[in-house]
């Protein structure tokens, strides 16, 4: 019985780790604008750790600096 409980505990630990790392799910990005981002050169951008297809759009802020907005 103890071995069974221990195995289940280890299984939950792996599942929890998968959830923390993002696992198979695509991370949804919080709405807002970000200064540090990656651009595809066509107006679409992405902010790590967000994953595609969660692209934002590039726009200029009040100071004329580019940012990525969701």
End-to-end separation: 50 Å
Strand order of the largest sheet: 1-5-4-3-2
Shape: globular
Largest sheet: 5 strands, antiparallel
* Structural class based on helices, strands and sheet pairing: alpha+beta
Rg is: 19 Å
Number of contiguous helices: 1
> Helix share of residues?
25-40%
Beta-strand fraction estimate: 15-25%
Spans of at least 5 consecutive residues whose pLDDT stays below 50 are 4-12
Give the topology string: H per helix, E per strand: HEEEEE
Mean pLDDT: 74
Number of strands: 5
Describe this structure in words.
There is one protein chain. This protein starts with a helix and ends with a strand. Helix content is 29%, strand content 23%. The protein has a domain at 26-69. A hairpin with a 4-residue loop joins strand 2 (38-39) and strand 3 (44-46). The longest helix has 20 residues, at 2-21. A five-stranded antiparallel beta sheet has the order 1-5-4-3-2, with no helix packed on it. The protein is built from one helix and five strands, in the order αβββββ. It is globular and about 30 Å long. The chain has 70 residues and is α+β, with helices and mostly antiparallel strands.
């Amino acid at each position: 019985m103890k071995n069974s409980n221990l195995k289940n505990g280890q299984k939950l630990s792996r599942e929890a780790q998968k959830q923390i790392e993002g696992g198979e799910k695509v991370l949804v990005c919080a709405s807002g604008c970000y200064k540090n981002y990656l651009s595809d050169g066509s107006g679409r951008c992405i902010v790590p750790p967000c994953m595609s297809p969660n692209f934002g759009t590039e726009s200029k802020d009040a100071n004329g600096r580019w940012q990525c907005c969701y």
